[in-house]
Structure formats: structure tokens, C-alpha cells
Design a protein that fits this description.
A 6-stranded mixed β-sheet has the order 1-2-3-4-6-9, with helices on both faces. A 3-stranded mixed β-sheet has the order 5-7-8. Helix content is 49%, strand content 15%. The N and C termini lie far apart (40 Å). Helix 1 packs parallel to helix 4 and helix 5 packs across helix 6.
């Protein structure tokens, strides 16, 4: 069986692909493990400056594995409430925690339906671009459940409370153009141009000093949750580090000499 998550690094950009197209790339435990291992390695090794996350086949991510949910609901794999709590805490909830701690920026290239936890997975990324055939739904209520993966925290921070409430309480799907109007994605492009558009955005990010990009990404994430004085304190500490980097000196030299800078990540 092929790996549930594939990764390819070209020109400082990592393409991470959910690789269960026959089942529309569900976030089953194997895929969760694959995503965590892949992104933790990318973050630690720093061989790529930006990552793009997409899905193989016609879907981005179908969310939870409905077949396994059915088995649990029918009693064939029934869990006690305590077991179910552990299943979430030590299962899918690892994903938002992992994305929150990353320093490498991640772009979601949403190539088809992003349903339930698949929609939340896109929200875990820093930026989102949609192909015209993309669909987004916070569809948990349609199955009589709630977003156990942190969607109630993620979605309002992307689209605002009122729109998140509409999506969460109706469970209705948005088209790519509606997602753009909601602010859920920043671009909608023809399906055939999706990865090219994602790579173009990734190149714009990768062109900048890698350490500054990583610290800016970390600072943006911390600013979601902290008071201004805490963020200012963290900003001053990171800025002190940034001033000592070779890339900062190279940026200033390139500006003075009116040439293109060459950043080494040092």
C-alpha cells in the first residue's frame, strides 16, 4: 500500500500530498500520523522554506472516515465516553497542536471538497488557495456531531464569528467563490492552475530571508492568543535575534548595492 502522505521538495518548496484518493483523502489515523511525521521533519530539517498541502485525486480532504464512524455507532467498535475522549485527544487533536507549533509556512492548495475536518485542516494552514471545483463545509452537525478537531477555535479566526456560526450551525457547503467572499481563501483559480498559483505564492515567501519568515510566522501565531504587551516582548526578543543574522546584513547590502539578495538562512 502506498504511503498516505507524499512529500516532494523542489527549489526550497515542499509539496505535501494527501494520498488516499480512492476514499477522498480522509483524516484517518494513518494519515494523521503521516502528516505529523512529514511536517515535523520538514520543520526540523529546514530543507524547504515553504510547504504546500494538497490532495491527490478529486478531493482535498473528506474529513473523518465515515465508514469507521458507522462501525463505532453500530456498536462493532463502540467506545466508552472516556475512550472516545482519549481517541480525540491522542488522535486528530494532535494536528492543530502540531500546525500551531510549526515555523515553516504552509499553504493549503484546496483542489476539491474540504469537508468537516478537511475544512478545518485547511484552516490549520497559514494561507489557502482554492481551485474552482473546491467546496468547503463545516459539516459536523449533518452527522449529529461537533468539530472535535478544534474547528470551533480555528474557523472564527479565519472567517469571523458570524460566518463561522453560519457554517457550523447549518453545515451547508460553500463554493470556491463563496469561500473567497467569506475570506476563507485568498484566491480562486481554475483547477488546472491551482498548483502553479500555490507555487507562485510559495516562491514569493521563499524569496525572503528564511529565519525572518519563520520568526514572523511564529509571531503571527502567538499574537492570535496573547495580549499586546506579551507580543511586544516576544517581538523585541525575536527582533534582537534577527538583527544578528547574516541574511539581515545581506538584505541591507543588497539594498545599498542595488542588486538581488542571496539568502542562506543564516
Amino acid at each position: 500500500m502506498e504511503a498516505p502522505v507524499l512529500v516532494e521538495i523542489v527549489d526550497d518548496i515542499a509539496l505535501v500530498t494527501l494520498n488516499r484518493p480512492e476514499s477522498r483523502n480522509p483524516l484517518d489515523p494513518e494519515t494523521q500520523d503521516g502528516l505529523i511525521a512529514t511536517f515535523m521533519k520538514l520543520d526540523a530539517e529546514a530543507k524547504a522554506r515553504v510547504a504546500i498541502l494538497t490532495g491527490a485525486g478529486s478531493a482535498f480532504c473528506a474529513g473523518g472516515n465515515v465508514r469507521r464512524m458507522g462501525e463505532a455507532a453500530s456498536g462493532s467498535t463502540e467506545r466508552t465516553p472516556a475512550q472516545a475522549r482519549g481517541y480525540y485527544r491522542h488522535g486528530i487533536q494532535r494536528l492543530p497542536r502540531m500546525f500551531e507549533q510549526l515555523e515553516i509556512p504552509v499553504i493549503a492548495a484546496v483542489n476539491g471538497p474540504a469537508m468537516g475536518a478537511g475544512c478545518d485542516l485547511a484552516c490549520m494552514c497559514d494561507l489557502r488557495i482554492a481551485g474552482q471545483s473546491a467546496r468547503f463545509a463545516e459539516s459536523f452537525v449533518k452527522l449529529g456531531i461537533i468539530p472535535g478537531d478544534g474547528g470551533a477555535w480555528l474557523l472564527p479566526r479565519v472567517v469571523g464569528f458570524a460566518k463561522a456560526a453560519e457554517m457550523s450551525l447549518t453545515g451547508d457547503a460553500l463554493s470556491a467563490d463563496q469561500a473567497l467572499a467569506y475570506g476563507l481563501v485568498s484566491q480562486v483559480v481554475p483547477d488546472a492552475e491551482l498548483l502553479d498559483a500555490a507555487r507562485a505564492l510559495a516562491r514569493r515567501i521563499a524569496a525572503n530571508p528564511p529565519q525572518a519568515v519563520r520568526m514572523a510566522r511564529r509571531l503571527l501565531r502567538e499574537a492570535w492568543n496573547n495580549r499586546l504587551d506579551s507580543v511586544l516582548e516576544m517581538s523585541s526578543a525575536m527582533q534582537a535575534v534577527a538583527h544578528t543574522t547574516d541574511d539581515h546584513k545581506e538584505a541591507l547590502a543588497a539594498m545599498r548595492e542595488k542588486r538581488k539578495p542571496s539568502y542562506k538562512g543564516a
